[in-house]
Amino acid sequence: MWSQGIERILPKSIKRLLLNIPKTKLDTIQEIRLRIYQPLEICLANTSVFLSNIGITADLSNAYKVTKEDCNQLLQAISNHSMYAIEDQLRQGYVTISGGHRVGIVGKVVADGGHIRTIQNISSFNIRVAKQITGVATKLMPELYDSVRKQPYHTLIVSPPQCGKTTLLRDIIREFSRGNERLSIPSYKIAVVDERSELAGSIQGVTQADLGPRTDVLDACPKAEGMMLLIRSMSPQIIAVDEIGSKADANAVDEVLHAGVSIITTAHAFNLEELMGRPIMNEMIQKKVFDRYIVLSNRPEVGTITGIYDKNRMKLSMRRAWIG
Q: Where is each AAA+ ATPase domain found (predicted)?
């Protein structure tokens, strides 16, 4: 059950509040946000609400106010009562917990030489609920596989935040790793650079998400360095990473392609036009690095595919929703 890892860390007072939410709403929770002395916020699929002692409310005066004790209990739970154990993750601003859920943290930053050393006096938490939805990529697979050359297309998923790009990327990885006999797609060796521990949700080296039987995960490693490392060490046929955009990322993708390895990745943007407004991404598009572009939005619902495009940015498919 997706909520088990989260229930373990929540303060008792907040667990009780969640019991008052109808299951239909509970299953759509994407984030639980705690801000000290502020109303407890729950982000659902297409809206945000606040919680009171009797359930969901739009009235801030009746909403439950997060206490300092709530924040202390949550911090102790995610650190297993050892702040030293999560020191490295604190520098990144989040902690990954069992189940692959990620807890974002903000407070007072302690810097050393221009680099974040740790975060103290933590005042806000954002519990991001990890939900793996298997099968969402199945119908797309024929458009992501070159049946003539017998290899996956270099693919870029383009999406604004919280529109399902990581969910889709995760399932594409699973599909290629397993292979699909019905579609005549073989299984592939896949290497994943999971810089933010979000794709696999690894805990002590054990992946919490199903990325398939032939997938190797390099956890908490910067994307550019990780791609180079995996080419040298794991002989992958596909490399998958989330959220590229820097010059170093672009150079690493070039090396992946020169090594004869397929690349599947994502980028933040509302559409291809916005993406082309960024010099580094525009250069990659003009060079026709990617064979396929999948563009997502949240209208009419999260995970709606607004278009699939080829390397020339010609549309290949009509609008469809892949998450019900």
A: 151-290
